[in-house]
Design goal:
Radius of gyration: 31 Å
Helix content: 25-40%
Shape: globular
Strand content: 15-25%
Distance between the termini: 32 Å
Largest sheet: 7 strands, parallel
Structural class: alpha/beta
Length: 680
């Protein structure tokens, strides 16, 4: 019997079990063997003197008292017995297991596993066995199961499968990797992950599978990157360096060292014969727009058109105004195309664009409508790229003949996630703020300080500045949050009556109404904006100097940082107040971290540690794969190593020809990356 045979051939697998296994995507013996436990129960005997409070523990002891039962209601009970464990006389408590009373006899040896309460000297028992501890089975695998299959049954099937087909599993990692990193062979790793003799074996099995998983993923990413660069080709943008230098010198400010480095990386890509596919990361206010302007002007000097796509009309308008100011002395014809541009005006823009009379088109998703045709599109830039779906980005890329593509984001993404989610892209980072930009002072205050905070806000408003008040939006209770914002709006409107104008923005407004409210705030017609919806990333209101975030503990660190970045965009000192009463230690840590640093990348790393990669982007479509073993937070060193190894392999002749690379090559071919299939 081999690993490719059906699980139904295993002893003890009937029709129902086979159907349940199929639901778990286990059809062959190979599928079964490669189903890893999500944790291991540690049944090693521990000394209670060394066991911390609230830890899970396994001990062996002697029954020292008669068991007593207290019935607590329908089918609820508590059985208690005293057990001598070494020098400790402890209480063992069994909930809802009245039948154990008959099994517990004075003087009998018993093995208990449960939660240890050090202060009360109590073990709350989760599992037990009568008699001394049997040798072996110190580490038991625990699998994620469905239906009527129990852990014990699954372990028996696993033992049978390994004995029959373990040797049949092919070793995919070349010997030199196993030797260099001292990794276990596939056969040893499989035995140890399912039936470990000790804790070290579990660790070694995990090391091997983590590296293999990350290497396979990175090989696919690097193969996709190589394929895109070589097969897609791209436009060689032969820009005029002297004209570009004149444009940069004419800007009303000097570039930071980080901006210069990033501009060089982008310009180098544009000169290459392959298509640029680059992600530009920069913290809020780090100056990504000027980098985009330089790239667009470079394309213009090569006789090519540029396109800049933003997620909202107001953001597109702001980009258009800023760029028009910078490009004004250089006679670029700039047009703005959004959903609001209709009729003859729209037709004229479309005609001029197709004729090549428009050099730069700025807009929203209106740019990807079928009737929008460019004459010679050379560079596409999308702002806040995560706000657009993959298909929307692809349509814009296909508008020209393989234009270079630059994705921009103000959401600092930790390096580990950037490598994983955007592994097929090159990543540029602006990690320096422009000179003279004042740090936003951030304070964490409790709810009872609300009156004092409003007083501080009033001081800013009296000095002619504006303020944001943000309420969280929680999908489960849209009604409640709507009411919260309305209450807050009414309170502030009453308090500031006849002195300052208060506006309200919430999820129930139509997009046109939201745009209108935001525009009034931008133009200074509204002094205080109360909002349940996250105020658009990138919206620039230099006069706003005060932000109050209500129930701040309901936001992630990266969200809080994005919100904070809406103020501090002018020359005045700005303030951000987090109003929060977090109940958990993690919540308190998040608030404290926000007051300690203004660095988005530091916060992003912290957020990743506190929340994990699945929640970091706030959605599952983040592009981060679900790994069986690897954890992007804890295994970042292995990820860096795997990326470096994958890059080297993909670009070497040996990888595509050597016999010991055949298994790795086959995995890439099966993923569909090389044949134009999409990478999952």
């Amino acid at each position: 019997m081999g690993s490719k045979d059906s699980v139904a051939t295993l002893k003890g697998v009937g029709k129902q079990a086979a159907e349940t296994l199929q639901e778990m995507k286990i059809e062959t013996i190979h599928d079964l063997i490669m189903t890893f436990p999500y944790r291991h129960e540690d049944f090693q005997l521990k000394d209670l003197a060394d066991t911390p409070h609230n830890e899970r523990v396994t001990v062996e002891g002697r029954v020292e008292s008669e068991a007593s039962i207290l019935f607590l209601g329908k089918k609820k009970s508590r059985t208690q017995v005293r057990v001598l464990v070494g020098r400790h006389l402890v209480k063992a408590i069994f909930f809802n297991q009245p039948y154990v009373k008959a099994k517990l006899h004075l003087g009998e040896i018993i093995t208990l596993t449960g939660k240890w309460d050090r202060g009360r000297q109590v073990i709350t028992v989760s599992s037990h066995s009568i008699g001394p501890r049997t040798e072996g089975a110190d580490f038991e695998p625990v699998y994620s199961l469905k239906g009527s299959i129990h852990q014990k049954t699954f372990r028996k099937l696993m033992r049978q499968a390994l004995d029959l087909a373990k040797e049949d599993i092919e070793e995919c990692l070349p010997k030199r990797f196993l030797d260099t990193y001292q990794l276990a062979s596939i056969q040893d790793a499989l035995e140890w992950v399912h039936f470990p003799p000790d804790g070290e074996a579990v660790k070694q099995a995990r090391r091997r599978f983590v590296y293999e998983e990350l290497l396979m993923f990175q090989l696919k990413m690097q193969a996709l990157r190589k394929k895109n660069r070589e097969e897609e080709g791209g436009s060689f943008i032969d820009y005029d360096l002297e004209r570009l230098k004149v444009f940069i010198d004419a800007l009303p400010f000097d570039l930071t060292a980080a901006q210069k480095r990033v501009v060089n990386e982008i310009c180098k890509d544009m000169k290459e014969p392959f298509r640029m596919n680059r992600l530009l990361q920069g913290d809020v206010g780090s100056g990504k727009t000027v980098v985009a302007a330089i790239a667009l002007y470079a394309a213009h000097t090569a006789g090519l058109q540029g396109a800049l796509m933003a997620p909202t009309e107001i953001l597109a308008e702001q980009h258009a105004n800023t760029l028009a100011e910078w490009f004004q002395p250089f006679s670029l014809n700039i047009a703005l195309l959004t959903g609001s541009v209709k009729g003859k005006k729209r037709q004229l823009i479309l005609q001029q664009l197709a004729a090549g009379e428009i050099d730069l088109l700025i807009g929203t998703h209106a740019l990807i409508q079928p009737e929008v045709q460019f004459h010679k599109l050379g560079l596409v830039i999308t702002d806040e790229q995560h706000r657009f779906g993959v298909d929307q980005r692809r349509v814009l890329k296909d508008k020209g003949y393989k234009p270079d593509v630059l994705f921009m984001t103000a959401t600092p993404i930790p390096r580990t996630l950037a490598i994983s989610a955007f592994g097929e892209m090159d990543v540029s980072i602006i990690d320096e703020m422009p000179v003279g930009r004042k740090e936003i002072e951030t304070y964490w205050m409790k709810k009872e300080m609300f009156g004092k905070i409003v007083g501080r806000m009033e001081k800013e408003l009296s000095a002619g500045r504006q303020a944001y008040v943000i309420c969280p939006l929680i999908e489960e209770s849209d009604k409640l949050d709507y009411q919260n914002a309305v209450d807050l709006f009414q309170q502030l409107a009453m308090y500031f009556k006849d002195r300052f104008t208060v506006g309200l923005m919430h999820g129930r407004l139509h997009s046109e109404e939201k745009e209108q409210t935001m525009r009034e705030f931008t133009e200074g017609k509204i002094d205080v904006l109360v909002s349940t919806t996250v105020v658009e990333v990138g919206v620039n209101v230099p006069n706003a100097s005060f932000m109050l975030i209500y129930d701040a503990e309901r936001f992630g660190l990266s969200q809080l940082h994005q919100l904070r970045g809406r103020v501090g965009r002018g020359s005045e000192q700005s303030y951000c107040v987090l109003l929060a009463d977090p109940k958990t230690e993690i919540g308190k840590e998040r608030m404290a971290t926000m007051t300690e640093t203004n660095d988005g990348f530091v916060l992003a790393e912290k957020d990743l540690q506190l929340r994990g990669p699945g929640d970091f982007f706030g959605r599952k479509q983040s592009g981060i794969p679900e790994f069986k073993m690897a954890d992007l937070v804890h295994d970042y060193r292995a990820l860096e190593t795997a990326r470096k190894d994958a890059e080297q392999l993909i670009n070497s002749e040996e990888f595509w020809q050597a016999d010991d690379m055949r298994c790795l090559r086959r995995q890439i071919e099966q993923s569909g990356v090389l044949s134009g299939g999409r990478l999952d």
